[in-house]
Design a protein that fits this description.
Strand content of chain A: under 5%
Order of helices and strands of chain B: HHHHHH
Number of domains of chain A: 1
CATH architecture of chain A: Alpha solenoid
Largest sheet of chain B: none
Strand content of chain B: under 5%
Structural class of chain A: mainly alpha
Number of helices of chain A: 6
Largest interface: A-B, 42 and 40 residues
CATH superfamily of chain A: CHAD domain
Number of strands of chain A: 0
Oligomer: heterodimer
Shape of chain A: elongated
Shape of chain B: elongated
Number of helices of chain B: 6
Number of domains of chain B: 1
Radius of gyration of chain A: 19 Å
Helix content of chain A: over 70%
Number of strands of chain B: 0
Radius of gyration of chain B: 20 Å
Distance between the termini of chain A: 41 Å
Amino acid sequence: MKWGSAQIPVIKKMATEPAIKGISPDETLEACARQIIVSYFHEMMSYKEGAKEGTDIEFVHEMRVTSRRLRAAMDNFADCFPKKPFKKHYKKIRAITRTMGAVRDLDVLIVRFQNELTNLTEVEQADILGLIGHLQWEHKKARKPMLTLFEELEKTNFETEFLEFFRG
Amino acid sequence: MAKAHKIAGLKPLRSYHENARIILSQRLEEVYTWEPFIRDETRREELHNMRISIKRLRYTMELFRVAYQNRGQQSAVSIYTEFLAMIVDLQEILGDIHDADVVLAVLTDYASQLGNQERQIAVLPGIVRLIARTEKTRKADYETFLEKWDQLSAAGFKQKLLSFLLS
């Protein structure tokens, strides 16, 4: 990942609200809940390859935000589904949010400190560059659990199982 | 981070709109469980939890937008959008406060790590400068948040939103 001063990425505050097609106020909650969860899941997974590659920090951001939207939906609709399998899937989504969060938080900090450099003296800049170097090393470490989790999800066929369960 | 409150009284086989009332009113109440702590600027954890509850309410309102859009009244659509914008505004200012808290923790930890390595308290002018700058913006953001909260409270925000959601 490149962090040179000419290449400081812009930090986007919030991913845009994904549109979910085919939801009707008169449809049953259960039918809508299935559609929403499946739709958010597809959206979240669409960022996975970009997050794995790691050259554009926005993929991690988008995947994390969508995983949060998905969790919020699952929290709201939990009673529409059998408890035990629901909990198993929920835990995996929570793990995705957590591992992505560790990486994203460091992305945001690095960019923030890069932006602070312009308003500091040379001596002060040296301190902050030291801190940025330290955070970049932490960032490298934080990507490992995320990549390990992705590998595990692929090995255990998580995507197929999740979709089978929520499609009903 | 506090867990989401469990939604009580859900009716999976009843309409999406009927359940919107059940879920949204409980998500709104969840936000207000953190209100007793907001007058103390040092309650970082509780301010953070309020932000998360507000974010949950925001995402839930976005999910149920369609349930309020299809009433055929243009005014209902714009009222819902206005309420949602106020929620987003609160979330963002609490987000700025949380970001400042994280930055302050990182700067302090980093300085003390270096201090331990060198067996002395590290004097790092850049770190000291950023701590002072971040404390100042954090204070300003916290005051802005309280102002916004008080304005909304004086305008009866919670009751108005609740009445709208339940109507």
